[in-house]
Amino acid sequence: MKKIGKIIFTVMAVLSPFAGIAQEKDLVQYVNTRQGTDSRFEMSRGNTYPATGMPFGVHLWSPQTGKNGEGWKYQWSEDKIRGFCQSHQCSPWMSDYAVYSLMPMSGELQVDQDERAEKFSHDNEIGKPNYYKVTFDSGVTTEIAPTERGAHMRFSYPSGEPAYLVLDGYTHSAGIDIDPEKRQISGWVDNYRFLNQPDGFRCWFVIQFDKPFEEYGLWENRNNSLMPGKAEGEGEGYGAYVRFKPGTKVQAKAASSYISQEQAELTLSQELGKDRKLEDTKQRGFETWNKLLNRVLVEGGTEEQLRTFYSCLFRANLFSRKFYEIKENGEPYYYSPYDGKVHDGYMYTVNGFWDTFRSQFPLTCILHPTMQGRYMVALLDAQQQCGWLPSWSNPGETGGMIGNHAISLLADAWAKGIRTFNPQRALEAYAHEAMNKGPWGGANGRVLPQDYFCRGYVPYPESGGSTAQTLEYAYDDFCGYQLAKMTGNRFYEDIFARQMYNYRNVFDSSTGFMRGRGRDGKWMEPFDPLAWGGPYCEGNAWHYNWSVFHDVQGLIDLYGSNEKFIAKLDSVFMMPSTIVPGTYGGIIHEMAEMELAGMGQYAHGNQPIQHMPYLYCYAGEPWKTQYWVRQIMDRLYNSGEKGFPGDEDQGGMSSWYVLSAMGIYSVCPGTDEYVIGSPIFRKVTITLENGNKFTIFAENNSPENVYIQSADLNGMELDKNYITYGDINAGGELHLVMGDTPAKDRCTSRYAAPFSLSKRDK
Ligand code: CA
C-alpha cells in the first residue's frame, strides 16, 4: 500500500505543472544573513546587519546590539542584544527610520535599554532570510519569521520567572494603545534621522499576541519612568510593557503601515491572517526566497563559494525598499515620503544610486524586469512629488553623494526593453536635474551647473569633488543622450551629445591622470595622485581615472595606445597600498580597507574603481580581466562576518560578486551589454522572469583554469568580450572552455571590445 502510494505520488510530481518546484534545491541553507556584520566605524567588513525579511520587503527585522539611533545596529563583536527591531536601514551612515523594538526578558522588569540587554552567543543564533532565532544566556528564546510588511515572532520564556516583553518606541515620539481584551498593542512611531521627511511622517503598527497579558503599562525611555496600568498615551520615547504567565511561549504577529492604523490592521490580516503558527510563516518565507535563489542555480563551486554566492544573492535582493501597501481590493497605493500624500500605484525608496547603478540595478534588470518597470514609473512620480529625481532616498530625499544617476537607471531600463515609463517625462526630469542645483546634499541637481555647461568641467577648489562630479555628470549626460537617441528625441540628444565627452576636460595628459582644474583652466597644484579627497570623492586620482564608463576607447585614446592604457591599469595593482589622506586629514574607513585588501591602489571597498578590472576587455587583454576578477572574488569576499572588503551598500557590493561569479559585469549601464569576466562556477543557470533559461557553462573551470580559451554563444563562436541583455533574456547557452594559461590571441581586436562612444564613432 505504502509502495503504491509512493509511485503514484512520484508520477503526479512529474506530470504536475509544479514539477519544477519539487526539484528546487534548498539554497536558503547557504545564506548567512550575518555576513559582513563584523564592522565598526573605522573598518567596514560590510556594515550589514542580520536582516530577516522578504525580497525588497517594506520592513525588515533585526536583532539590535547598538544603542537606539546608532547606525551600527548589530555588531558581531558585541555580546548583548537590547531588542529586536523593525528595520529599514541600508547603511549605518544613513541610519534607520520608523523603528520600534521588542525585548523579551524573564525575572525583573528592566526597561532601560542598557539594563535590559541580555548576553548571547553566536552559537545560539540562526540567521536566515526567512528565520532568525537566538537564545539568550538567560534561557529566553526569540524567533522571527518575516512577511513583506510584518513579522511573526515567538518568545519562549523559562518557567518559574515572570515573563516580560518590553516595547521601545525608540527615538522621537511614539503613541501606544494596549488592548488587553484583544491581546493587542498598537501605535505609531515617527523617528528618522534626516530632516527632509514630510510633516506627519508616521509608521503605524499593530501587534497581536496569542496569550493574555497578566500585567501591562507604559513607560518613557528618556528617564525610564514606568506608568503601570496605563494603556494609552503618547509622547517622546514612549514604550509599553506586558507580562505573560511564567514559562509561556507567546506568538506575536506584527504589521506596519505608513498610511494608517486601519491599513496596518488590514496588512496584518492580509499577510499573517491565515498563519496559525510561526512555522507557517517561516515556510512561506522559505518558499519565496528559495524560488528566487533557484533562479540563479550555480553548480561546481566549493561549499564556501556557494555560501558566499547565495549570501550575496540574498543581499542583492533586499534593497530598495518597496514602499507601497495593498488596499482591500488588492490595488497598490502608498504614502509618499516626498510630499506626504497618499497616491495610487507603486513606490520604492531607500537607495543611493551612486552605490547601486553600477551593479545592483543591472542585476535587477535581469532578475526582476517587472519590478524594475514599476520602479521607473515610481522614479518619475517621485520626481513630481519631490521636485527632484531621487538620488539618495531614505525614505525622503537626502541628495547624498554625487552625480544624477537616476538617469542611468532609466536609460538602462529602456536599453533593456523595460519601457513602462514616458521617456519624454524622464528626459525633462533629467534636464531639470542637469541644469539646476537642488536644495539638499550634492546630488539633487548639479553643483555649479553653469560652470559645467560653459567650461565643460566643474572647477576646483570652488567645488570639493569637482573632478569626480565632472566624470559622473559626463556619464549621466551620456545616459540622457542614449535615452533621447533611443526614443527619437533630437532636442535632448543634441543637448547631451555636447556634454558627454566632458571627461576629456579633466584629463591631464602630462601626468596621465584625471585631475582637479581651476576656473582659469590651470591644473590644480600641488598634485599627488595618491592624495584622497580634494577634487575626488572618497577616493584619489588612481580610483577616478576609470570613470568613463561610456567611452573607454576614448579614454584609451587619451593615453595614446592600448599598451599605455594597460600599463596604467597594471600599475593600479602594482602600486604600494600607500595611504595619503589628502583633504580628509585622517584615515577614513575606505582607506584602511584598501590597505587591508593588499591589492595596491585597487580599492574594491568603494565604488569608483569597482569596474576597472573589466577594462582590460576594451584594450585587447581580456585575460587580465579574467585573472583579476577571480583574484578579487577569492581574496576579498567570503560568507562570514568579515565577508566584504568595505561597505556592502544596498546590495551594490553583493551584486558585483553575483554578476562576476556568473562571469559577467555591466560596465556601462545605459547600454544593453554585459562584459565577460571569468565565472567561478562550472555551470550557472539563470531562469528569467519570462521562463527562459540562460546557461553559462564553463568547461574545465577550476581555481587555476581561470582563462577563457574559447567561447560559443548558442553554438556559434563568440569573438567578442561581451554579451547582451537580449542574449540573456532570450535564453540560450554561453559555453566557455577554460584553461590555466591566457589565450593571448583571443578577442584582442577593437571589434571584440564592448561599447564605447569613440569605438562607434570610428
Ligand atoms: Ca561605498
From TrEMBL:
The keyword Protein biosynthesis is annotated on this UniProt entry: no
BP GO annotations: carbohydrate metabolic process; glycoprotein catabolic process
Listed InterPro entries: 6-hairpin_glycosidase_sf, GH-type_carb-bd, GH92_a_mannosidase_put, GH92_N, Glyco_hydro_92, PNGase
Domain Glycosyl hydrolase family 92 N-terminal residues, every copy: 30-257
UniProt-listed Gene3D superfamilies: 2.70.98.10, alpha-1,2-mannosidase, alpha-1,2-mannosidases domains, GH92 mannosidase domain
Gene Ontology MF terms in the entry: carbohydrate binding; hydrolase activity, acting on glycosyl bonds; peptide-N4-(N-acetyl-beta-glucosaminyl)asparagine amidase activity
Enzyme Commission identifier(s): 3.2.1.-
Protein name, as recorded: GH92 family glycosyl hydrolase
